[in-house]
């Protein structure tokens, strides 16, 4: 089919665009983990209540679905977060955004403090000194998987409160410790216990804003996971040099998070399920309750599901590696920037931190690129077809991004030289981060459109596992690569790897339906049809599985739209 062909799909319940389901492109509610998913004879979760669920009506937790008998008291129900005052909605939007920014900034604020850590604890190995950063990053692999199902039972606010307490206390213990092992251990527990916001923040956005506004408001939350690690070296280097102590690489994070913690304890619950459950209690109703054992089983299955998808789900595996590589390259710059700019240009820590400005500019451009493609192509097709557009139409920004990433990496590999101005390698970060951000948002939006609600949160969580696992690994060998191979060829290795990833979004764009058919999970299975704008042709366009007349071998089918209908012609070949 030609490029003018439109890919159509039926919207699924729970996905953006389906009536009554809020959500913004690319960021589903991680806490929607319920639903049945069968594979190899095993069910991660059953929609049918077990006998234990039926029998356990006491000493349990109120089941989120038990509030279905209650709903908002009309469109203007004051308890509905969408009806809160603008000021209250803005505050509750800023909380997860600033929280996520401070949380992810903590990954890289210690980069400038590595020499001080090595000196204080007598560590001669750079990799050992990196452990407070490495283990902090690994915490992001597990934390969201734990928090997501728990928030579905106890609400988003409970996750925020518990997470911020763990994050602040563990970071405070780590920075006050004079023992290197304690520093490493408590940094790990800080991110493990504090990264639940990565799982529930998007859901908060969807709770507060209607579908027509949530995609624009969600920009702050979209930027945080990328701006945090990119701005961390800049913020950390200035704080550490100002006060002359590597511990300010952690103190500065606590300074960001403390006001957030205060705001959280004065904030309100936004989850509809939990608000209605509280209303049911006030009204003296006794919703169905589920046993503690049953709930623990559900939580355990929900935690394992993303890991299964990392291994056995082709779509999650390929897109996870694709986005994970580019995301990990940002982390690799923690080592390569230090080596390149200190060796070639004799920069100090503060000057090296300023070099990350190129990445920040690229991230902002990537966000704009995704928004432009979404507004000019995807949303127009949604309006024309009644929101029946195939997931592959989410990938336009990724097609551009796949080209920009290797351009930026080759530029960065060969630009550094004493005879070349330092701005040249700094600006190489612009196309790289531009392509990385555009690709990430496109791929996340693709997952949101391709997977059905029962598996969507796990698919996105699986993508996060790849990103942070690779991000934790890369800084541990990059510095040594640049020392052994030299700046040009060490950088070129990563650039050549990025060339191998160029076909990934193009493959999904052209063969997406075939790849989705191979999935073990619930995915949309819509077909490609020829364009047809006549109103009386909508029955053809909206068909999930079009049934066209059989074509004999040796003939080419040609479909023609006219006011009398769609006609099939055959051309001998």
The share of residues in helices is 55-70%
Radius of gyration (CA) equals 25 Å
Mean pLDDT: 80
| Beta strand % | under 5%
Shape assignment: globular
Taken together, the total number of domains comes to 3
Q: Kindly report the name of the CATH homologous superfamily of the largest domain.
A: MFS general substrate transporter like domains
CATH architecture of the largest domain: Up-down Bundle
Category by helix and strand content: mainly alpha
Largest sheet: 2 strands, antiparallel
Which fold name corresponds to the CATH topology of the largest domain? Growth Hormone, Chain: A
Number of strands: 8
Ordered list of secondary-structure elements with their pairings:
Elements: E1 6-7, E2 38-39, E3 42-43, H1 51-55, E4 61-62, H2 86-108, H3 114-121, H4 126-129, H5 131-154, H6 156-176, H7 180-194, H8 197-208, H9 211-217, H10 219-243, H11 248-264, H12 272-282, E5 289-290, H13 292-312, H14 314-343, H15 349-354, H16 357-385, H17 396-414, H18 423-450, H19 453-473, H20 475-485, H21 487-501, H22 503-517, E6 528-529, H23 538-541, E7 555-562, E8 565-572
Antiparallel strand pairs: 1-6, 2-3, 4-5, 7-8
Helix pairs in contact: 2-8, 2-10, 2-11, 5-6, 5-7, 5-8, 5-13, 5-19, 6-7, 6-8, 6-11, 10-11, 10-14, 10-16, 13-14, 13-19, 14-18, 14-19, 14-20, 14-21, 14-22, 16-17, 16-18, 17-18, 17-21, 17-22, 18-19, 20-21
């Amino acid at each position: 089919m030609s490029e003018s062909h439109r890919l159509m799909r039926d919207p699924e319940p729970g996905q953006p665009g389906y009536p009554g389901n809020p959500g913004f492109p690319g960021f589903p509610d991680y806490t929607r983990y319920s639903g049945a998913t069968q594979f190899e004879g095993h069910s991660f979760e059953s929609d049918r209540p077990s006998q234990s669920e039926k029998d356990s009506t006491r000493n349990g937790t109120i089941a989120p679905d038990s509030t279905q008998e209650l709903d908002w008291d009309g469109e203007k129900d004051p308890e509905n977060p969408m009806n809160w005052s603008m000021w209250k909605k803005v505050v509750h939007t800023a909380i997860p955004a600033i929280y996520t920014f401070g949380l992810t900034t903590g990954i890289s604020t210690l980069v400038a403090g590595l020499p001080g850590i090595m000196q204080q604890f007598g560590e001669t190995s750079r990799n050992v000194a990196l452990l407070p950063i490495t283990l902090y990053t690994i915490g992001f692999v597990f934390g969201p998987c734990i928090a997501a199902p728990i928030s579905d039972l106890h609400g988003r606010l409970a996750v925020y409160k518990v997470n911020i307490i763990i994050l602040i206390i563990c970071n405070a213990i780590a920075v006050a410790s004079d023992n290197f092992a304690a520093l490493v251990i408590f940094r790990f527990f800080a991110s493990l216990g504090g990264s639940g916001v990565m799982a529930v923040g998007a859901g908060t956005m969807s709770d507060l804003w209607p579908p027509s506004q949530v995609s624009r408001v969600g920009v702050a939350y979209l930027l945080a996971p990328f701006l945090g690690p990119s701005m961390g070296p800049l913020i950390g280097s200035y704080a550490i040099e100002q006060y002359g102590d590597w511990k300010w690489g952690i103190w500065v994070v606590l300074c960001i998070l403390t006001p957030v913690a205060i705001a959280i304890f004065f904030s309100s619950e936004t989850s509809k399920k939990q608000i209605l459950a509280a209303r049911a209690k006030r009204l003296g109703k006794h919703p169905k309750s589920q046993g503690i054992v049953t709930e623990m089983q559900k939580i355990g299955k929900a935690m394992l599901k993303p890991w299964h998808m990392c291994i056995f789900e082709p779509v999650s595996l390929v897109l996870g590696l694709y986005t994970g590589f580019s995301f990990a390259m940002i982390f690799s710059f923690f080592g390569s920037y230090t080596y390149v700019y200190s060796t070639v240009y004799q920069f100090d820590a503060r000057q090296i931190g300023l070099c990350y400005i190129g990445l920040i500019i690229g991230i902002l451009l990537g966000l704009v690129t995704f928004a432009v493609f979404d507004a000019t192509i995807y949303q127009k097709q949604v309006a024309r077809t009644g929101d029946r557009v195939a997931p592959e139409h989410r990938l336009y920004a990724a097609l551009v991004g796949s080209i920009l990433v290797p351009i930026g990496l080759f530029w960065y590999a060969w630009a550094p030289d004493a005879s070349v101005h330092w701005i040249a390698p700094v600006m190489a970060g612009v196309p790289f981060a531009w392509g990385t951000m555009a690709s990430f948002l496109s791929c996340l939006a693709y997952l949101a459109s391709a997977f059905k609600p029962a598996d969507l949160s796990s698919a996105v969580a699986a993508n996060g596992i790849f990103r942070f696992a690779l991000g934790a690994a890369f800084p541990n060998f990059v510095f040594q690569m640049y020392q052994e191979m030299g700046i040009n060829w060490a950088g070129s290795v990563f650039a050549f790897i990025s060339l191998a990833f160029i076909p990934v979004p193009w493959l999904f764009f052209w063969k997406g339906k075939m790849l989705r058919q191979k999935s073990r999970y619930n995915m949309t299975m819509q077909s490609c049809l020829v364009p047809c704008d006549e109103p009386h042709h909508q029955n053809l366009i909206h068909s999930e599985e079009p049934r066209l007349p059989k074509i004999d071998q040796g003939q080419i089918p040609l479909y023609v739209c006219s006011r009398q209908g769609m006609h099939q012609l055959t051309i001998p070949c």
